[in-house]
Amino acid sequence: MTDQANPPAVKKLFIKTYGCQMNVYDSQRMAEAMGAEGYVLTEDQAQADMVLLNTCHIREKAAEKLYSDLGRLKPLKAERPDLKIGVAGCVAQAEGEEIVRRMPLVDLVVGPQTYHRLPAMVRGEAPAILTDFPSEDKFDHLPQRRATRRAPAAFLTVQEGCDKFCAFCVVPYTRGAEVSRPVDRILREARDLVERGVREITLLGQNVNGWHGAGTDGDWGFGRLIRALARIPGLDRIRYTTSHPNDMSDDLIDAHRDIPQLMPYLHLPVQSGSDRILRAMNRKHTAAEYLRLIDRIRAARPDILLTSDFIVGFPGETDQDHADTLRLVAEVGFGTAFSFKYSPRPGTPAYDRPEVDGAVADQRLQELQALLTKQQKAAQEGMVGRRLGVLFEKPGRQAGQMIGKSDYLHSVFVEAPDAQVGDLVQVRIVESASNSLRGELAA
User: Fold this and answer.
1) For each of the chain's 443 residues, which pLDDT tens digit applies?
2) Where exactly are the structural domains of the chain?
3) Same fold yes or no, 144-263 and 297-381
4) What kind of fold does domain 297-381 have according to CATH?
5) Which CATH class is domain 144-263?
6) Contacts of 148 (CB under 8 A, 6+ apart)
7) Contact 155/21 with Cβ under 8 angstroms?
């Protein structure tokens, strides 16, 4: 316990967060854990007493990006030998001791399931490399979230890990098996966030809609959790990501119909429109099953905006497989989507499979992205003239301007000189830009 008469000296912590939204949440929790050790966040890396790189292994060349950033830290470490440098997250889990071997300037390496031990590592009371999967729940060992005002939108991790073992994905190996947080702890953290000014919570998990937890009256599914969260006074908006098609239960689909706080936005990755490639990916669903699921979701919530993920050039992909993907995209009509050229990940089943010619994969990616961009533009233009709720998150660059998120997660710029961060207002959309909307306060 910290001696209140002799509080720890204030030190500065710089955190660089790579990749996914779960890493944003993890970085916040690591900052809170280090806050108990006297660290405060800084945006100036050069002035930091500790630099923490919280990595993600999903995107292409994740390890190379880490080592490049570490290389840029060498002059700073040479100038200030007492500077502590740590690597956290999924690349830390995957690379482990290799990081320190290649970059001796690194003082500690901590995986995503052990970052609750980060303070002990900094104090020298725990090993400098921790990448195991401990039996204890890290959330039980993290400090209570600090009682300070928060931004109006926040992330809340409810589930971690994945049991799906898609052939291209490292998550089961870096985050471990699926684990769901208990109902009472999720609700407690959500209430705490709302008490500190949060009006929108995004529930996070590698397979978030696979969440299930023990309640006082039996096992709960994800739809029931959303219904319980919606009863928290002051929680005006609920979102969740990332989902798997096979875990879209009837109760969850009904929640999209019944719960006004659940926003009309769903990220539901399909990855490919080819059944042959879906089998090779071990996705355990077909294109037709995905399309039927989309029909059911839209029947429950007709105005829902759908987004997805696509991998182009997966090993063995043919022109026909690519055409099947384009056909599925054309049939669904996505509001936006993330699309990437396949990048092999060491340790995954697809790692050693023959790759599609790079030029061919590039061409297919361009074709897919052109179609997705067309659909995104159409979705945004369809918002013009509509009256939407917008939650203001920050001031704009121009005097009197505010920036917020619409119900459909679009960034919206609004002239609102009397508004404040955290206001949830009705806005009439008047213009669609390339990746945002412009609106006017509705009368």
Assistant:
1) 445 555 557 899 999 998 777 888 889 889 988 988 889 999 999 999 999 999 887 665 778 889 999 999 999 999 999 999 999 988 888 888 999 999 999 999 998 888 888 999 999 998 889 887 765 566 666 666 554 556 899 999 999 999 999 999 988 988 888 999 999 999 999 999 999 999 999 999 999 999 999 877 888 999 999 999 999 999 999 999 999 999 999 999 999 999 999 999 999 999 999 999 999 999 999 999 999 999 999 999 999 999 999 999 999 999 999 999 999 999 999 999 999 999 998 889 999 999 999 999 999 999 999 999 999 999 999 999 999 999 999 999 999 999 999 999 999 999 999 999 999 999 999 999 989 999 999 97
2) 11-135, 144-263, 297-381, 387-441
3) yes
4) Transcription Regulator spoIIAA (3.30.750)
5) alpha beta
6) 196
7) yes
* Annotated binding-site residue numbers: 20, 56, 90, 162, 166, 169
Residue 415 to residue 395: CA distance in whole angstroms: 10
Q: Specify whether the backbone of 161 is left (phi greater than 0), alpha (psi in -120 to 50) or beta.
A: left
Token pair, residue 60, equals 């292409």
Binding site membership for [4Fe-4S] cluster: which residues?
20, 56, 90, 162, 166, 169
The domain defined by 387-441 folds into: OB fold (Dihydrolipoamide Acetyltransferase, E2P) (2.40.50)
Return the half-sphere exposure (C-beta side, CA atoms, 13 A cut-off) of residue 326. Answer: 16
Please provide the CATH number assigned to the domain covering 11-135.
3.40.50.12160
Nearest in space to 115 (alpha carbons), one of 33, 53, 190, 177: 33
pTM of the model: 0.85
Percentages (nearest 5) of helix, strand, coil residues in the chain: 35, 25, 40
Residue 398 makes CB contacts below 8 A (sequence gap 6+) with: none
